[in-house]
Amino acid sequence: MSPHLTEQVRERIIIWHFQQQKTIAEIAQLAGCSQRSIYKILTLHRDFGHTRNPFAHRCGKPHILNQQDLSFITSILDANPSLFLGKIQEQLLDSKLPVISVKISVMNLLNFSM
Predict the structure, then answer these.
(1) Which of 28, 40, 96, 101 is the most exposed place for a label (fewest CB within 10 A)?
(2) Alpha helical stretches, state H, the chain
(3) 33 vs 2: CA distance, rounded Å
(4) Neighbours of 5 (CB within 10 A)
(5) What gap in Å lies between CA 76 and CA 47, rounded to an integer?
(6) How many CB atoms lie within 10 A of CB 6?
(7) Nearest-angstrom CA–CA distance, 48 and 41
(8) How many CB atoms lie within 10 A of CB 101?
(9) Dihedral (CA of 14, 15, 20, 25) sign
């Protein structure tokens, strides 16, 4: 799965298309995405005046850990790769980050490393 386009890149796509008159192929190369993604963003802009569907709802639950939390966990593992998950959780508690289960820690780390 390709990474999501940031709001800034989505806005640039609109500028590239309407103000700079770039082709869809050029925009796709600049944005690092498919031409289909460009067409979808342009359609959303035409239909809603935004680069995202304002009526769409996010699927799933909100993330428990943010990027800073994941970076902290990664730095702990970089410093001590053989550390058990229970010790990682203790260090998280000591650092006053949100209390999370070992299972959630592992799932987030696996998703983070992909």
Answers:
(1) 96
(2) 7-18, 24-31, 35-48, 67-79, 85-94, 102-113
(3) 8
(4) 19
(5) 47
(6) 10
(7) 10
(8) 11
(9) negative
- Distance CA(40)–CA(43), nearest Å, equals 5
Give yes or no for a contact between 88 and 77, defined as CB atoms under 8 angstroms apart. Answer: yes
For 43-71, the pLDDT digits (tens) are: 999 999 999 998 887 777 776 777 777 88
Residue whose token pair is 């709001």:
7
Q: How far apart are CA 63 and CA 73, in angstroms?
A: 15
Question: What average pLDDT does the structure give for the chain?
Answer: 82
What is the torsional sign of CA 111, 109, 57, 6? negative
Which has more confidence, 81 or 36?
36
pTM (two decimals): 0.52
| Cα 11 → chain centroid | 17
First to last CA, the chain: 10
